[in-house]
Amino acid sequence: MSSIENNETLRVINERHSVKKYESGFVMPEEDLTAILTAASEAPSAWNLQHWKFLVIESEADKAKLLPIAYGQSQITESSVTIAVLGDLEANRNAVIYDQAVEAGHLKPEIRDALVGQINGAYQSQQTARDEAIRNASFASQNIMLAARSLGYDTCPMGGYNPQQLIETFNIPPRYIPTLLITVGKAAQPARPAGRFPLSDVVVRGSF
Ligand SMILES: Cc1cc2nc3c(=O)[nH]c(=O)nc-3n(C[C@H](O)[C@H](O)[C@H](O)COP(=O)(O)O)c2cc1C
């Protein structure tokens, strides 16, 4: 059993910081990108609806298009890739995932039908659809950042971009809402130190 000090997962979490300067021109091996995207898709999601789509922006031409959309933030062009994490506003349609379980005999068809009924009921609310898209896609984002760090890459999550321009430039269908851009690459400079509040400020035990 590993001690807290030697724990690999905690080390990766502690090492993840937002890197803004990357080795320009570093081409990430395809297998590393695949491992990072696979980790993203392993994230938990409400009802297992997997409310995400990952738009990978990697060609020089596409990076150049993205740069002004992200208000000129240079990590877009210097990093190896930018992953636009999109939330699925129609994630109720992903309930087809249950059909596999029914076919494999792990889920009774009537339970599947009841679940699908609940989900479609919840998705009558646009507010719910939007909240769930953003909430669930965010777990995938964190997996991207931790998997990347674990493989020796660094990342920067970015909310500083114009979502409407992103949608128009990259033909994002209305089904998806942009949540976050994440640059991934080899760090050329470490992240600027960013402090954290002590646990005594952020933890409430029991009740307020
Ligand atoms: C939702 C979100 C939006 C962010 N947007 C930007 C951004 O547009 N540009 C940037 O350089 N960093 C951005 N950051 C990075 C934060 O500034 C950074 O996470 C925070 O200062 C803590 O530092 P650390 O990530 O290095 O620990 C964003 C982070 C999050 C979670």
Features:
NADH Oxidase; alpha+beta
List low-pLDDT spans: none
Total number of strands: 4
| Average of per-residue pLDDT values | 97
Portion in helices: 40-55%
Give the CATH level 1 class of the domain at 16-87 and 126-189: Alpha Beta
Detailed description of the structure:
The chain has 208 residues and is an alpha+beta fold. 44% of the residues lie in helices and 14% in strands. It has helices spanning 8-15, 30-41, 60-69, 75-78, 97-103, 109-122, 126-150, 163-169, 199-202; strands at 52-57, 81-88, 154-158, 176-185. It is globular, with a radius of gyration of 19 Å. The mean pLDDT is 97. The protein binds flavin mononucleotide. Flavin mononucleotide (FMN) is lined by residues 17-18, 20, 73, 156-160, 180, 191, 194. Its EC number is 1.7.1.-. It holds the Pfam family Nitroreductase. GO terms for molecular function: oxidoreductase activity.
